[in-house]
Amino acid sequence: MPTMPPVPTTIFDDLDDYVAAPRVTDLAVAPNGSRAIVALSQLASDKTSYVSALWDIDVAGTRPAQRLTWSDDAATGPAVTATGDLLFLRRKSSDDEALSVWTLPGSGGEAHVLATRGASCTGIRAALSADSFVLASDVHPSADTEAEDDRIRLLRNERKVGAILHTGYPIRHWDHDLGPATPHLFTGRTSHEAADPQLRRITARAESALHEASYALSPDGSFVVTTWTVPGVLAASRTVLVRIDIASSTSTILVDDDAADLGSPAISPDGTHVAFLRESLSTPEDAPRTTLQLYSFGDGTVTDAAPGWDLWPAAPTFSADGCGVLVVADENGRAPIFEVRDGTARRITHTDSAYSHVHATSDGSIFALEASYLQPPHPVRIDAATGAVTSLPLGEDAPQLPGVLTEIDTTAADGRGVRAWLAQPSEASESARVPLVLWVHGGPLASWNTWSWRWNPWLLVAKGYAVLLPDPALSTGYGQDFVQRGWGRWGKEPFTDLMAITDAACALPQIDESRTAAMGGSFGGYMANWIAGHTDRFDAIVSHAGLWALDQFGPTTDVAYYWQREMSPEMAVENSPHLFVADISTPMLVIHVTRTIESPSARVCDCGSSCSASRDCPPTTRARPIIGSFFTPRRTTGCWRPSTRKSGIRSSSRSSPNTFSVRRSPYRRRSADEAPKRACRSARTGPLESTGDQFSAEDSRQPRRCIAEKLGSQRGRGRSVSGLGGRWLLRGRPEIRQARVLDRAAPT
User: Fold this and answer.
1) pLDDT tens digit string along 434-478?
2) Of 85, 240, 611, 638, which cross-links 454 as Cys (Cβ 3.0–4.6 Å)?
3) Which has the higher per-residue pLDDT, 638 or 316?
């Protein structure tokens, strides 16, 4: 065994050091480019949360950054006014749960409260050339005045009332229940001589229309353009663009497209145009498409800003002269900045990085946060003409990495190229081969293209693993066709792409192809479950917050109508991992969080019980998997609390909510010679189709009967059960994969 050279210690070698690492979370820039502020989160003294502080960075990149806020209470949501004053959100005292608007004068002086409410506030937007700002804050629906809203909130807190009366849909989002208060927009003045220092509501009876809204304030502070959610049939909804006058609080619909969701509005510096994103509503046959649109206040027309551009733009902001729009778009595993001008998109940055929080200033500069798998987000200044990137010193050096990053690609079965990042230990070589972990990204409309503190490959690299980060079909950044080829076909092209790029990685001389694992979260967890039932090439599989039974996921997730646009009954049956539970032979660790609403924990319990049922089948030569489960009762898919990120996995009773339990099967693992000869047993032989598969009588008689009996189809008799949008006929033989629609009742 060759001796490995010593590797310098990094923050990735110890989870305590990793959790304690500071991280940049936000960026605000003065309209004239004279000042830039970043929010830097650090571990709190109790080591159970993060506290954000604001830092003033030198826009010239010559002097070190200066810390501006020192309170133990986090300062968040920075915005810089036209006069250079800093606005931010912070609690007035440690005993006050609500956030207040604070200001720190640009000319010097102490920070003080500018405005306050009894409820929390988010999303400050300051006018470019006026002394006004807007923000969002929750209001109880029965409160006609701010005093009444404060009274209701105080009574609920004092009497510990947690009940919520839901009168609409959705009722949940991400990791929390919605209500009883709903978001509203408020306006305030930034001048110290303002007659009314308090906030004034400019939206009346918004109900849930501003849930997850994105909005922009005009340069002169006279109006707001915001997204507005309108209800549709069968509990569906979509978003339109609305103009709200600040002085009168009157609202007018600007753009209403019944075939799309509209979002991310940005107002031009002269106030004459609005740039926004249009995401077409998907169908079971057609994937959504995101395009950049322009609305003209002059004639009320809407035009496609870049017709024929095949990438998906995000986060539009106008250039300094107002004639172009800056956007970020995923492209080949990166997320560069583009300028859309005169109907075409020009790439500005040419690095391997991803950019966010883009700001264009009146002096012609571009400020942004830059990140890649080589370094976490950090502030930069970009020359709009040449694309040259200058890092702005923050005082925090980029963490030293425990390995190197390379890029690999291959060709899929249909001839399409598939690429991936490969993070591997520095010492990996042909004489010191390392095991491989396939890591499937979530989304699925996403890309592995930027640093993530939640999903970081270097933690595994520090332990000696090579980590493969592929972008299979459905990933963004490779054109609309690349998304379309996987749409409604989750278990087909996305799966075979993953197997193809894994084959390419295993062919590298420094990779030990005999030691491989697969894992993923959310959609990646779904794919981990699908992989487990369709190939035994991996030695271990980790499924984090994954989808198990698609017919149950669709109606129970927090935005069911979105998923039902793609998940027809046929799609749900053809791509559901739970129908292949009897084929799972690889040891699995299933991780879930009880507050992960997108993929409810009950679905993961179904996964465990289904695997247990498969082990109760009469003994065959099939392998019996080792099933482990790790549950945490808090938060969501990322396990965001620092204490949860470094959870000790220990044995305990099954009743414990934080339990890692491994149940070993008495059956030995199947050897290659004993494996049943069935069509497409391994991914290497091609995709497994939902119909037409042929199996031997011995192969199909026992394992699939377990599934049939689990679904109530004993003795091979058919039984109709409720499914996604209709009733299904399930049979107790291989035809279980050929479920037939009895009717297509409209979902309710």
Assistant:
1) 999 999 999 999 999 999 999 999 999 999 999 999 999 999 999
2) 638
3) 316
End-to-end CA distance of the chain: 63
Q: Both 494 and 633 in a single domain?
A: yes
Please give the Cα distance from 584 to 257 (Å, whole number).
45
Cβ pair 706, 582 in contact under 8 A: yes
pTM, 2 dp: 0.84
Mark whether 567 and 448 lie in a shared domain: yes
Q: Determine the Cα–Cα distance for residues 630 and 431; give it in Å rounded to an integer.
A: 36
Percent of the chain with pLDDT over 70: 77
Q: Report how many domains make up the chain.
A: 2
Strands (E), 92-222: 99-104, 112-116, 121-126, 132-139, 172-173, 176-177, 182-189, 200-201, 215-217
Name the CA radius of gyration of the chain, rounded.
27
Domain membership of residue 426 as a residue range:
403-685
CA distance 395 to 410: 40
Residues 494, 527: Cα–Cα separation, whole Å: 9
Tens of pLDDT, residue by residue over 136-187, are: 999 999 998 989 999 999 999 899 999 998 888 888 887 788 889 999 999 9
Mention every residue, 6+ apart, whose C-beta is less than 8 A from residue 657. Answer: 594, 631, 632, 633
Measured in degrees and rounded to the nearest 5, phi and psi for residue 116 equal -145, 155
Cα–Cα dist 281/287, whole Å: 8
